[in-house]
Amino acid sequence: MERAYDGTVSDSPPTLTGLTTYLLSKVGKEARSRLTARLAERELRLWHMAVLAALADFGPDAQRPLAERLGIHVSDMARILDELSRTGHVVRERDPADRRRVLVTLTPQGRALLAGLMDEATAVQDEMLAPLTARERATLQRLLLRIYTEAEGRKG
What pLDDT is attached to residue 98? Predict the structure, then answer.
């Protein structure tokens, strides 16, 4: 007897749900979709948030190294920085140490925007991780960071 798809996990093939990588992919896709929707309400994308976070965490940087750090094509980075500059979230100024370079710096408005975006990201995270206890969340974070760190180390 053929069963209609009802959108529940029971409709996913157990062969796939038995794979941690499959579950990571599906959960990651859902989390990204939810965060992307929240950012779109502000007419922003994940790359805007990534650039703001990198500048907040690592300080001013030139466009090319910033693009490389985030894995963004240089031409896409130029567009993102144009958008963030137009809205007053970053400024671009000549590097006093090397006048050929242009440094991108986070403004106070950019820092405030990032704080709001982090609130949105935390809300999505809380939604996604609601079935877990605080201890389970901490364990998941620790394990995922370990996997991420190892995978990133293999790239370099």
Answer: 85
Q: Which of 42, 60, 43, 38 is nearest to 51 (CA)?
A: 60
CATH annotation of 2-154: 1.10.10.10
Which segment of 47-51, 99-103, 126-130 scores lowest on mean pLDDT? Answer: 99-103
User: Can you give the pTM of this predicted structure?
Assistant: 0.86
- The answer to whether 46 and 36 are in contact (CB under 8 A) is yes
Domain ranges of the chain: 2-154
Cα first-last separation, the chain: 52
Q: Which residue has the tokens 């690592």?
A: 58
pLDDT at 152: 87
The angle formed by the CA atoms of residues 38, 48 and 53, to the nearest 5 degrees, is 100
Contact call for residues 103 and 91 (beta carbons, < 8 A) = no
Contact between residue 108 and residue 87 where contact means Cβ atoms under 8 Å apart: no
